[in-house]
């Protein structure tokens, strides 16, 4: 029973089995189409209509004719009337600065930061004598240090980019100039040049392959730099260029005109034509060698440069990376703005105070006359700017640099973590950014890919069913089932892959005895029906498969005695149980994601013609003959295999008569040369021949979960982190993996796309009928979508996602027409179309709310763009911190969209890693990244910021209290040099080390108690409440630091009979009290003490006294009398025991409330962290006991589910094989191979 599927005109339901739309449209094309297209694109059309071709073919390249590309028609305006060629040179530039632009550009970028600009303005104000209350160097020195540190960091980064650019641009290549090949640097290559490349050379530009030393101009390339895949891919030269362009003279005379698409970022598509000697030849991606690839196994290749430098596809794919900022960053900026406002208000209040004071006292006191004829209002205005300067340290200039240093340190700790190092691949964890570490401690949603991320993407043939009988359980050769079996000994097969594990001896015995013809036919099909390529090397065979699935199936056939040896354009040679046979290949019907199957038509040595087919059960069963046997038993076996989360394929065959094949072949050849709708015509021919099939059996392949995935998911769930799986794989496969990794459980109620759509329609209808209840802007109703008790899960396909979110193109067209007034909005409340954009938004909000009510969400058959859209929806409507994790090129979109992107260096290449913020080799390391490094980073950063704001408020507001006793004259309470060095030397190191090293509990306890992660998600440790607590704490400490010394100095006599109550002694006492207070305060905040922390606290105090006695000495005063004015003040003041008692009293009263509050909090209102700390010893003993116990083996779920489809990969090598450009010509003789016959499967991106 299959549901009614969508058609092109109007659908009842979307098709769960297919991607909702092709993802080869770039974003800008979608934008253009959404604005101006009168009609939606025709479903399934792979090529543009004929009338669209001229606009596409706007890029013209003429071979061996450099002046042609500088004609006026190919120039573009750069600035005003200045024009340059639209064709880029081949030099690339990734650096930002050069010798001339570094200083101005870097300063410009740094002064875009508000705090730096503020201090520059302040510096200018300090130069004005009338308002300068502090010397200019008090601002200049910290500003220069901040700008210098940041500038040096930027310079080091840019020098690395310069070195990389220079290395790439200076690579050598042979270019055809003046009729002969000359060695040239890459930077000198131009569009239209003919180049010669040799084995192991990198390809310097996007090049049209003309000819090579291999038969039929076949060229092998490795695309590791492009997509991370190390397997070889195959490129082809046109037949005409292969035949005519082998010699240097022929290449020099080559004068073809290439017309093709303009430069774009689509790695999977190229459309063009070549006009050569009066004839046009079509060009596609198979003819192109892309920059970034490497020539392999091809001695010499010749090509024509089509795109160079910045126009190449790899450079176009560099794209604009989204700038990511943490929540703390945004909050910190808002707090700095708040401090600006507070500073202005305080300065304005004190300026007004000076105005009134001068009216009442200052103008009447003859001893205060300064000879300036200024009224009180003008003096108040000057005092406003004076206080802006005096109180400038409220805005912490060193804050941003300190934050960057802390983040850099946290990143290094992630890189150095040996527990996130994967030994098998020698892959350490890598923090590719230094700006997001604390955000790792605030993650609420994780969006994960499936294949290669949760699973290993390493396929193993585990079970099969042949003619209704299942194999794969531990069984003896006699058929006796065992509880535990030993692996089969493959020593009888010299071609066997020794790493292949199989425990059913009965199947091996059945094959070797030759009694079961179905079993032999089964493995013969596996050895013949595929697009695997084979290379013969000294140590055996090397297979190149279009997917890991195919590689696993051909390897299984090899081990069971059916060894694929070689293929040519029209033959396949296999070894059947020691007998070598060659079959004539009549047709190869390749796999694609729509067909979900592949077939091959073979002529046997005895003249019989047979079609072999393998594919998904959903498509094979529709095409089985009514006479086919074992359908029910095979379906039962498929369900059992699916329950064990195995990926399945059905195998079948069909015998053809010669007449039947000949008739079909003629129609097939006509379809192959059709000028329009060629793919549709071929599909119709495939449908015709792939009917009335006879079922043989089915295979079951295991796509193993990565180690520790279920445990990691369970641990993250306890930390209240929701995990969504976004995959391009089939619904059944994704669901089965969901069960196996514990994301789904048997007690969950699963809701599918149709259920979700129905619930959303009901909510939408109610909203239309009761608009007042659901009015936008009012509080959303608390009514849940799933009011029933119990856990819920949502499984939705890409087609349903588009249906639910109104993203289908035909619906977007309706919206477009409605906006243009060509169609009235729907008035029927039951109409499922949105009435306006706000209703569409409400529908999206409803979907996100519903999904967030579920314990687990799995989106399958989704395109890369949909993955990014789902992440965007949660970010937009939940204001949540999101993390995406994936390993393939199809995950790049969601990795860049999420707040944090994590790449797994797995089977699918390194493109995801290159786009990520963090990278490691296994999914299980995500647990440690978040619960240990993320949580620690968040706690450290919050503690650092709270303390940093506190110490600056405590330091600066002393000036505020002093102003009440200085006639609001903007005189400062400290010595100038103390103000200059306070944030740089006296108080920076202890807090910096807390930001780098502090931890409330160790890493093991962090993992044992995931609930410790919750404060980060809630933003509980740093917010406006904490900011104002720091502000009031600073106000309190500044009051104590000012008024206790003030009271102590009032009417006081020193030991020597002199009064120590002078301004300089007072400044020293307040400064000393402040240094002791802030350094002891950070000691109270420190949870994790090391020698370095202790040294920093004591060292900061020692540095303060050392520098103070130096700058107060008579020697330095003699050298700079106007700069160092506190001569002898420190030694005079600090020899008075009375003043030391004052300092002790001041520090004690400042710290006592903090000590009391901390005691009460930990005793009466302890947090989860406090409780864990209190019982730390007990928990550590429990952990030691747990480590001694062996972890139980993970059991798979037993719930019955539909079979999973294994054959999910990209289009195979059928075109290459049937075109005759096979991997190698068949060797004349073949010796006996050694035991280690290796298989190197091609790892393809997942279903996209």
TrEMBL record:
Every P-type ATPase N-terminal domain range: 64-140
Gene Ontology CC entries for this record: apical plasma membrane; cell projection; endoplasmic reticulum; trans-Golgi network
InterPro entries given in the database record: ATPase_P-typ_cyto_dom_N (IPR023299), ATPase_P-typ_P_site (IPR018303), ATPase_P-typ_TM_dom_sf (IPR023298), ATPase_P-typ_transduc_dom_A_sf (IPR008250), ATPase_P-type_domA (IPR059000), HAD-like_sf (IPR036412), HAD_sf (IPR023214), P-type_ATPase_IV (IPR006539)
Domain P-type ATPase A span(s) in chain numbering: 169-232
Membrane topology according to the record: Multi-pass membrane protein
Spans traversing the lipid bilayer: 111-128, 134-156, 334-358, 378-403, 944-965, 977-997, 1027-1051, 1063-1082, 1089-1108, 1114-1131, 1138-1160
Origin: domain of life: Eukaryota
Region (Disordered): 1-50, 817-838
Residues at which ATP binds: 449-451, 550, 591, 614, 647, 727-729, 861, 867, 890-891
Catalytic residues identified in the record: 449
Catalytic activity: ATP + H2O + phospholipidSide 1 = ADP + phosphate + phospholipidSide 2; a 1,2-diacyl-sn-glycero-3-phospho-L-serine(out) + ATP + H2O = a 1,2-diacyl-sn-glycero-3-phospho-L-serine(in) + ADP + phosphate + H(+); a 1,2-diacyl-sn-glycero-3-phosphocholine(out) + ATP + H2O = a 1,2-diacyl-sn-glycero-3-phosphocholine(in) + ADP + phosphate + H(+)
Ranges for domain P-type ATPase C-terminal: 913-1167
Subcellular location: Apical cell membrane; Cell membrane; Cell projection; Endoplasmic reticulum
This protein's UniProt keywords: ATP-binding, Cell membrane, Cell projection, Endoplasmic reticulum, Golgi apparatus, Magnesium, Membrane, Metal-binding, Nucleotide-binding, Translocase, Transmembrane, Transmembrane helix
Composition skew (Acidic residues), residue ranges: 10-38
EC number of the protein: 7.6.2.1
GO molecular function, a single term: flippase activity
Cofactor names: Mg(2+)
Family, as annotated: Belongs to the cation transport ATPase (P-type) (TC 3.A.3) family. Type IV subfamily.
Subunit structure: Component of a P4-ATPase flippase complex which consists of a catalytic alpha subunit ATP8B1 and an accessory beta subunit TMEM30A. The flippase ATP8B1:TMEM30A complex can form an intermediate phosphoenzyme in vitro. Also interacts with beta subunit TMEM30B.
Protein name per Swiss-Prot or TrEMBL: Phospholipid-transporting ATPase
Organism: Perca flavescens
């Amino acid at each position: 029973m299959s549901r009614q599927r969508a058609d092109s005109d109007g659908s009842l339901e979307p098709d769960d089995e297919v991607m909702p739309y092709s993802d080869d449209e770039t974003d800008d094309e979608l934008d253009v189409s959404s604005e101006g297209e009168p009609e939606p694109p025709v479903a399934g059309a792979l090529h543009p209509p004929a009338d669209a071709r001229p606009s596409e073919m706007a890029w013209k390249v003429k071979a061996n004719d450099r002046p042609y590309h500088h004609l006026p028609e190919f120039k573009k305006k750069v600035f005003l009337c200045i024009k340059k060629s639209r064709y880029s040179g081949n030099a690339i530039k990734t650096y930002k600065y050069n010798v001339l632009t570094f200083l101005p550009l870097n300063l410009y970028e740094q002064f875009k930061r508000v705090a730096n600009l503020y201090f520059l303005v302040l510096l200018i104000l300090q130069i004005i004598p009338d308002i300068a209350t502090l010397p200019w160097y008090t601002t200049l020195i910290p500003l220069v240090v901040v700008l210098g540190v940041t500038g040096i960091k930027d310079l080091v980064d840019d020098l690395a980019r310069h070195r990389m650019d220079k290395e790439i641009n200076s690579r050598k290549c042979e270019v055809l100039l003046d009729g002969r090949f000359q060695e040239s640097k890459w930077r000198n290559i131009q569009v239209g040049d003919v180049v010669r490349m040799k084995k192991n050379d990198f390809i310097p530009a996007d090049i049209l392959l003309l000819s090579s030393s291999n038969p039929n101009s076949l060229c092998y390339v490795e695309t590791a730099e492009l997509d991370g895949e190390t397997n070889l891919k195959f490129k082809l030269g046109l037949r005409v260029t292969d035949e005519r362009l082998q010699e240097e003279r022929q290449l020099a005379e080559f004068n073809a005109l290439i017309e093709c698409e303009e430069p774009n970022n689509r790695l999977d598509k190229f459309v063009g034509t070549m006009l050569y000697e009066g004839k046009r030849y079509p060009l596609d991606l198979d003819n192109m060698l892309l920059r970034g690839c490497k020539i392999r196994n091809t001695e010499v290749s010749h090509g024509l440069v089509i795109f160079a430098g910045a126009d190449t596809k790899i450079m176009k794919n560099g794209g604009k990376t989204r700038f990511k900022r943490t929540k703390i960053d945004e909050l910190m900026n808002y707090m700095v703005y708040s401090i600006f406002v507070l500073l202005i208000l305080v300065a304005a209040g004190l300026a007004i105070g000076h105005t009134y004071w001068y009216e009442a006292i200052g103008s009447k006191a003859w001893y205060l006359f300064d000879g300036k004829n200024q009224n009180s209002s003008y003096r108040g205005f000057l005092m406003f700017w004076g206080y802006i300067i005096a109180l400038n340290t409220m805005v912490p200039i060193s804050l941003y640099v300190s934050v960057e240093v802390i983040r850099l340190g946290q990143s290094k700790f992630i890189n150095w973590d040996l527990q996130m190092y994967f030994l098998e691949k020698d892959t350490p964890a890598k923090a590719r950014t230094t700006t997001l570490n604390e955000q790792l401690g605030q993650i609420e949603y994780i969006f994960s890919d499936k294949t290669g991320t949760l699973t290993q993407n390493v396929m193993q043939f585990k079970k099969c069913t042949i003619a209704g009988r299942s194999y794969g359980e531990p069984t003896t050769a006699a058929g006796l089932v065992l509880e535990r079996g030993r692996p089969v000994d493959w020593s009888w097969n010299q071609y066997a892959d020794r790493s292949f594990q199989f425990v059913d001896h009965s199947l091996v015995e059945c094959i070797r005895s030759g009694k079961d013809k179905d079993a032999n036919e089964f493995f013969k099909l596996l050895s013949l029906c595929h697009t695997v390529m084979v290379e013969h090397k000294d140590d055996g065979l090397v297979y190149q498969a279009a997917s890991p699935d195919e590689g696993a199936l051909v390897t299984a056939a090899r081990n069971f005695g059916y060894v694929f040896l070689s293929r040519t354009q029209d033959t396949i040679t296999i070894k059947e149980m020691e007998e070598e046979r060659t079959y004539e290949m009549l047709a190869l019907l390749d796999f694609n994601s729509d067909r979900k199957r592949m077939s091959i038509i073979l002529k046997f040595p005895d003249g019989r013609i047979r079609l072999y087919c393998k594919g998904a059960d959903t498509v094979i069963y529709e095409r089985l003959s009514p006479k086919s046997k074992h359908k029910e038993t095979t379906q039962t076996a498929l369900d059992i295999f699916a329950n064990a989360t195995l990926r399945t394929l059905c195998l079948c065959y069909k015998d053809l008569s010669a007449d039947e094949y000949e008739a079909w072949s003629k129609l097939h050849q006509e379809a192959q040369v059709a000028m329009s709708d060629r793919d549709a015509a071929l599909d119709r021919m495939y449908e015709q021949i792939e009917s009335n099939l006879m079922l043989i059996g089915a295979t079951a392949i295991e796509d193993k979960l990565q180690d520790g995935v279920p445990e990691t998911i369970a641990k993250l769930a306890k930390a209240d982190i929701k995990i969504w799986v976004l995959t391009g794989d089939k619904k059944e496969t994704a669901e089965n993996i969901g069960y196996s990794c514990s994301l789904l459980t048997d007690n969950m109620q699963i809701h599918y796309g149709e259920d979700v759509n129905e619930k959303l329609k009901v909510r939408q209808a109610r909203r239309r009928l009761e608009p007042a209840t659901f009015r936008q802007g009012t509080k959303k109703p608390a009514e849940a979508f799933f009011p029933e008790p119990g856990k819920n899960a949502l499984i939705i396909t890409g087609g349903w996602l588009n249906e639910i979110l109104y993203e289908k193109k035909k619906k977007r067209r309706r919206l477009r027409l409605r906006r243009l007034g060509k169609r009235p909005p729907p008035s029927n409340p039951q109409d499922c179309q949105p009435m306006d954009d706000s209703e569409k938004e409400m529908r999206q909000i409803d979907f996100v709310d519903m999904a967030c009510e579920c314990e687990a969400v799995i989106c399958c058959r989704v395109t890369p763009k949909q993955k990014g859209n789902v992440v965007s929806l949660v970010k937009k409507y939940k204001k949540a911190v999101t993390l995406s994790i994936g390993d393939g090129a199809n995950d790049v979109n969601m990795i860049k969209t999420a707040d944090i992107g994590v790449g797994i260096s797995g089977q699918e290449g390194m493109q995801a890693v290159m786009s990520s913020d963090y990278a490691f080799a296994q999914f299980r390391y995500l647990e440690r990244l978040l619960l240990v490094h993320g949580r620690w980073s968040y706690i450290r950063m919050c503690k650092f910021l709270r303390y940093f704001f506190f110490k600056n408020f405590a330091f600066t507001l002393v000036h505020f209290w002093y102003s009440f006793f200085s006639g609001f004259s903007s005189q400062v309470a400290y010595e100038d040099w103390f103000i200059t060095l306070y944030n740089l030397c006296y108080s920076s190191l202890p807090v910096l080390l807390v930001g780098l090293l502090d931890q409330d509990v160790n890493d093991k306890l962090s993992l044992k108690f995931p609930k410790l992660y919750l404060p980060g998600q809630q933003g509980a440790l740093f917010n406006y409440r904490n900011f104002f607590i720091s502000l009031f704490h600073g106000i309190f400490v500044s009051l104590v630091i000012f008024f206790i010394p003030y009271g102590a100095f009032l009417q006081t006599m020193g030991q020597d009979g002199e009064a120590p109550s002078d301004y300089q002694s007072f400044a020293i006492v307040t400064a000393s009290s402040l240094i002791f207070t802030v350094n002891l305060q950070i000691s109270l905040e420190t949870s994790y003490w090391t020698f370095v922390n202790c040294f920093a606290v004591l060292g900061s105090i020692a540095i303060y006294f050392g520098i103070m006695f130096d700058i107060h000495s008579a020697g330095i005063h003699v050298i700079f009398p106007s700069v160092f004015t506190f001569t002898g003040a420190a030694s005079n003041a600090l020899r008075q025991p009375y003043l030391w008692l004052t300092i002790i009293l001041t520090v004690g009263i400042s710290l006592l409330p903090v000590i009391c509050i901390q005691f009460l909090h930990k005793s009466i209102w302890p947090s989860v962290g406090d409780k864990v700390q209190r019982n730390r010893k007990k928990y550590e003993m429990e952990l030691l006991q747990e480590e001694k116990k062996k972890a139980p083996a993970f059991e798979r779920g037993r719930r019955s589910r539909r079979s999973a489809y294994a054959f999910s990969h990209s289009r195979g090598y059928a075109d290459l094989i049937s075109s005759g450009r096979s991997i190698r010509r068949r060797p004349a003789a073949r010796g006996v191979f050694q035991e280690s016959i290796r298989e190197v499967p091609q790892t393809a991106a997942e279903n996209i």
